[in-house]
Amino acid sequence: MLLELLVLLVPAALGEDVTQRQLKPVKGVPHSRLHLYQPSTTDTFRCLDGSQTILYSQLNDDYCDCKDGSDEPGTSACGNAFFYCSNVGHKGNFIPTNRVNDKLCDCCDGSDEYDSGVDCPNICDELGRAARIEREKIANVARKGFQKRQELAKEGQALRDAKLKDVEPLRQERANIEPERARLETEKKAVEEVEKKLQDEHRNQWEAVRIEKKKLRAQDWFDELDLDKSGKIDREELRQNLFLDNDHDGFVSEDEVKSYLTIDEADFEHFQSSMYDRLKEARHQHREEMKYKEEQEKEKAKALENAPDDDDLLADEDRHEEEEDPEDVRAQEDDKMPDYPPEVNEASEKAREARRLFDEVNEKVQDLDAKIREAEDFANSDYGEDYAWAALKDKCFDRNVQQYTYQFCPFGQNTQKDVGAYGGTSLGNFKNWSGGETNKYSKMHFGDGQQCWNGPKRSTDISIECGEENELVEVTEPAKCEYLFTFRTPLACTDPDKEVVHDEF
User: Fold this and answer.
1) Is residue 142 one of the residues assigned to a domain?
2) Contact, 177 vs 364, CB < 8 A?
3) Among residues 63, 35, 67, 34, which one has the least CA distance to residue 53?
4) How far is CA 21 from the centre of its chain?
5) What is the distance between the alpha carbons of residues 17 and 348, in angstroms, rounded to a whole number?
6) How would DSSP label each residue in 413-443?
7) Statement: residue 9 has pLDDT above 70
8) Contacts 24+ apart (CB under 8 A), 220-224
């Protein structure tokens, strides 16, 4: 709370020009804020939260008078105040006042232990030198990275300009082709209608003949099954057909018959509509089973030692295997539609040619549409204020972690796969920049990845840091199916020589 007040309050709050007079030093207060701690004309001090006014002599008297602790910046009397370490030679910083005179050296200049009896060595120069060396290293990386970033920005801007420049010619080319495409589509539809009409007529004619032939085959079989020629088939007549012996016990039972004949007697109409196809399938299945058994017997006979001549023994069986059910042969012939007549083939050829001509032009239009969309999407995408990030579009960066390879594709999809594997698991697709208002391009968010088992869809957050090269440097999974990547790139580098460094805060 005190820090917030210190940031918000300004010298004008005192109602006087403090820059024109010598400021009295106050322990624990940085020079930039000494004006807040100067005595008033009545030799009083007003707490920084404005809650009360106390005597100026009560400042740093080791007793907490102000609720915000602002009267004791140099002692440990208040638990909610802060002490400023000047740290000359290094960087000044604030510490909680409860660390003042606690016999532990918190400030590098030892100023926090001024009254504890502890002699703290001043190591600010040493720390300052190390910090300056480290800052210079970081600054050198930033300078090199920033230089590359400027080059990438030019590349991205040139790419944007080229894509946008191509949009209007592409639109004009599409407009020129569109009338031809529309004409060919109309012609295609017309000849396809003729083709379909002739094909349907041929198919309907054949279907009518096929149905009639099937009816005749059904009638022949009905007459064959109707042993007493009564015009009806009863269960006893149906039991004479061994192909209905489903349990292979040598005879057809009443229950086996009932599964095909659910009424007492069946006339031809019932036979044709409810029994014919099922009986035909049962007979076909029975024949297949018999063939299989015969084949097994044949194999056994071949395996017997000193067996009679195999060819003589199995000749009849072989001939039986080659025989086909005449009913099945007739059905196959009847169910095969005759070839289309010449007039239908001629119509189909015209339709094929019309489709070919239309497809050629239509593919050109679709290709132009794709190029136009790509250019417009590129122009509408957020690649940074200077388009520098466009240089990484369609590029990917890998990092191996144990048995996995993680891949980061800016503006694309992140994946996890076994090392050496081809396919992988989606960790999310690019959704948006998520660095916030202050540094929007410092983070990326990827979502809607592959669903976790009994968990959420996978997602990835990308933390972006300044670096001389593009490199995926770290991969972690802080929560189930939520991944965190650290990516270093010149695109995150700013000009270090234009940055202002503040030692006080």
Assistant:
1) no
2) yes
3) 67
4) 65
5) 98
6) EEEEEETT-S--EEEEEEEEE-STTTSGGGE
7) no
8) 221/276, 221/279, 221/327, 222/268, 222/271, 222/272, 222/276
Token duo for residue 132: 């300056």
pLDDT digits (tens, 9 = 90+) for 152-172: 999 888 888 888 888 889 999
Digit-coded pLDDT (tens) for 447-496: 999 999 888 999 999 999 999 999 999 999 999 999 999 999 999 998 88
Dihedral over alpha carbons 250, 254, 257, 263 (to 10 degrees):
170
Query: CA of 291: how far to CAs of 68, 242, 295, 487, in Å?
Result: 101, 15, 6, 70
In angstroms, how far apart are the furthest CA atoms of the chain? Answer: 137
- Is 13's pLDDT higher than 50? no
Query: Same domain, yes or no, for 400 and 327?
Result: no
Within 10 angstroms of residue 158's Cβ, the number of other Cβ atoms is: 12
**CA–CA distance, 459 with 256 (Å, rounded to integer):** 61
- How many folded domains does the chain comprise? 3
Say if residue 227 is in the same domain as residue 324: yes
The span from the CA of 352 to the CA of 345, in Å, is: 10
Provide the 8-state DSSP code for 505: -
Q: Are residues 331 and 399 in the same domain?
A: no
On whether both 325 and 236 belong to a single domain, the answer is yes
Q: DSSP characters for 228-257?
A: T-SSSEEHHHHTT-GGG-TT-SSS--HHHH
Which among 335, 358, 386 is the end of a domain?
335
Other beta carbons less than 10 A from residue 497's beta carbon: 9
344 found inside a domain: no
Closest CA to 173 of 371, 356, 35: 371
Taking each continuous run of H as one helix and of E as one strand, the counts in the chain are: 9, 14
In a domain, 353, yes or no: no
- Identify the CATH number of the domain in which residue 442 sits: 2.70.130.10
In-domain check, residue 205: no
- For residues 264 and 479, give the distance between their C-alpha atoms in angstroms, rounded to a whole number: 72
50 vs 41: CA distance, rounded Å? 17
The pLDDT confidence band at residue 500, using thresholds 50, 70 and 90, is low
How does pLDDT run across 385-400, given as a tens digit for each residue?
Answer: 888 999 898 899 999 9
The parent domain of residue 431 ranges over 394-494
pTM of the model: 0.55
